[in-house]
Amino acid sequence: MAILKRDLQAVKRDIKALEKKLEKLLKAHGKPQRPKVAKKVKRRIVKTRTKRKAVAKKTTGRKKAPQMTATEQILQIVRRSRKGVDVPTLKTKTGFQDKKVRNIIFRASKEGKIKKVGRGIYVRAK
Fold first, then answer.
1. Which of 15, 58, 66, 121 could form a disulfide with 84 if both were Cys (CB 3.0 to 4.6 A apart)?
2. Where are the domains of the chain?
3. What is the 8-class DSSP label of residue 60?
C-alpha cells in the first residue's frame, strides 16, 4: 500500500510539472485559442435532375460505322446480287444460322422487300 501511495505522488508531481511547462508555452505563444468547432452543415435541396456537362471525347480520326441489323445485312447482300442469292450463300456470307436466315427471308418477302425468282433463289423487289 505504501508503494502505491509513493507511485501516485510521483505521478502527481509529474502532472504538475507538465502543467507548469504548458502554461509557459501558452504565455510564450500568446492567448490560448479555442479549439475550432465544426460548422453546422446546411442541408441543400438536391434537384432531381442535374445537367451534366458534355465531356469532349478524343477523336481517333475514324468514325465507327453503326452496326447493321441482321435483316439489313441480308437485304444488302440480296440487293447487290444480279442473278439472285440462295440460302447457303447467305449463310456463308453472313455467318448466321440456317433458321435465322430463313426467318429473315420469310419476313422480308412478306413485307415485299425481296421476291422469289426460282426454287430457293431470292432477288430484290422492284
1. 121
2. 70-124
3. -
Which percentage of the chain shows pLDDT scores above 70?
A: 76
CB 95 within 8 Å of CB 74? no
CATH architecture of 70-124: Orthogonal Bundle (1.10)
Q: Quick check: helix, strand or coil at residue 32?
A: coil
Query: Could you give phi then psi for residue 41, rounded to 5 degrees?
Result: -90, 125
pTM flag (> 0.85):
no
Burial class of residue 86 in the structure, from the number of CB atoms within 10 Å of its CB (0-12 exposed, 13-18 middle, 19+ buried): middle
- Residue whose C-alpha cell reads 479555442 in the numeric block: 34
Question: CA 114, CA 126: separation in Å to the nearest integer?
Answer: 8
Higher pLDDT, 25 or 17: 17
